[in-house]
Structure prediction request, 211 residues.
Amino acid sequence: MPVDTLLDIAMVHADTTIENAQRGDEKALNRLVSLWYKRIYNYVHKYHADHDIASDLAQKTFIQMFKHISKLKEADRFKPWLYRIATNLCFEESRQMKRNKLVSIHEGGDEDDVKVKMQVLEAKGNFFNPERNFQQGELAEALVAALNELSEDQRSVVIMKEYEGMKFTEIAEAMDASENTVKTWMYRGLKNLRVILEGKQITKETVHYEL
Prediction:
C-alpha cells in the first residue's frame, strides 16, 4: 500500500516513536497520543455510543499507556496492547453501568494522573471533531444501537475487525483469547447483528455494511 499522507509516514516509523516513548521521551509519548487518539476514541465510541464516555475512556487508555508502556516488551505489539487496554476499560465501564444504572464520570485523581491527563489533552489537540466524524445520520446511529445489543466479546471483535481493520492475530492478542475463539465471536456477532438490523428493517443496502 502506498504511503500517501504524513499520518501514513508516521505510522510506518511508529516503532521508533514507541521505543523512544518506552525510554520516557515525553515528545514521543505525546506523538503516540496524536497518532492513536482518534482511532481509540472511535473504537470506544462505537462500543458505548456515548461521546462523554468515549472521551473519558480514551483519555484513561492513554493515561494507562503513559504509565505502563515501559513494560511493553516488543514495539510491534503496541497496537493490540493499546486496544487491549481500551477494551478492558470498555468492559469495566459496562460493568459499572450495570451496577449503578447511571453513568458518572469523575475527574479528580492524584497529581500524577492530572498531569498525564493534561498531556493527553494537549497532545490530542483539536485536529478532529469526533461527533461529526462518527455521527453521520440516523442509519449510523441505528447501527451503533444494534452493535450495543451484542455481547461484550462479540461487539469488541466486530468493531475491531470491521471498523478498525485489525487482523485476527491482533484481535486475539487484544482480547487475550485464541484466534479460533475470536473467529467464533466474529461469526456469531455478525450473525446476531444481521438479525438485529433486519428486525429494525435495515439492510446492507441501506447502511452500506457487509452483513
The longest helix spans residues 26-48. The two ends are 26 Å apart (CA to CA). The chain has twelve helices and no strands.
